[in-house]
# Entry
Amino acid sequence: MATKNELIEMLATSSPDAIENLRQHAYQIMKDHVGELVYYRGIIELSNICTLNCHYCGIRRSNTAAQRYELDDEQVIEAAIWCAKQGYGSIVIQSGERRNHAFTARITRLVLEIKRKSISEKLPNGLGITLSLGEQSPATYRQWFNAGAHRYLLRIESTNQALFAALHPPAQQLDQRLQALHDLRDEGYQVGTGVMIGLPGQTLEMLADDILFFRDSDIDMIGMGPFIPHAQTPMSTEALGNTLRSKEERLQLALNMIAATRIACPDINIASTTALQAIVPDGREQGLTYGANVTMPNLTPAEVRKDYTLYDGKPCLDESKTECRTCLLRRIQSTGRQVGFDQWGDSLHFAHRTKTQPPH
Ligand code: SAH
# Structure
């Protein structure tokens, strides 16, 4: 088992030869434990309306320049069914955070409807549904689980108290987020989390602690990527000045972080996220070569994609989902990998942990 010092060393890797060794080591572990298939989760960005005010995020409540939108039921269901027909197997519904009854009840209805409509010969249990809708009550998680969602993504953002506090207003507390991850596990979800990488004030030691947290809390899935400043936030490039690491540094650190996480948690699913591609065009392919085995094609209708900008420079803003499909497949095949079409591609870690421990 990797120690904290070994993890710090992996994260600090900077010479080309050492990076290549780290990458190959992580890739081999991935191959041995979860195989080489890449699983798709088509992501539907339901709405950028958000009641929270995270300092780093472009859709934060106080950003009055953001054009707010909300997809209607038909758009969401159409995107989901398109996904099922393409063989994607799973979707993610992500949104700015809202906790009111109208919102939570709408999600329940959408999950039920997507499940019902996506059952086919190829997908006898319908699409795999992941939700990424922020902190909610246990009763809400339960309702959505019973409707058919079985995976949930909630990034911890940083497990370091002081850094977490620097990133969020006082009303948003690390403890609440930790509690939410516990609640999700108790409700039976496959639980995903993650952090932003290369934040101002974030040390390699903090990132190593994040990885130990993923391992010690038995996390099933990870989605993480480089921090990318958004101009209309308190953490813009201008405001951060020389506390911001260069793009190249943030990219390499994010790739090292994927590799170190794979080495520490061999049987989890790790996503290669869009933020990597916002730094360099082949960023997502690079993430796959460092041990990631999941990627998230964007299914959000092109007319509102530009409004779901969590960070500046989000790629593929004017591409349709059909264009994304062709482009992404080409990109994945360029790394010598195949896509696990028509499968959920669930976390093997979840299967392992629920065999030894009865599900809650
Ligand atoms: N409201 C949901 C979804 C949040 S957006 C929730 O709270 O879970 C998904 C992720 O985007 C966030 O968890 C955060 O890690 C990431 N993100 C937001 N702003 C970012 C930025 N400026 N750079 C990189 N990632 C960012």
Summary: The pocket of S-adenosyl-L-homocysteine is lined by residues 56-57, 94, 96-97, 132, 134, 154-155, 157, 196, 225, 227-228, 230, 275, 310-311 (CB under 6 Å).
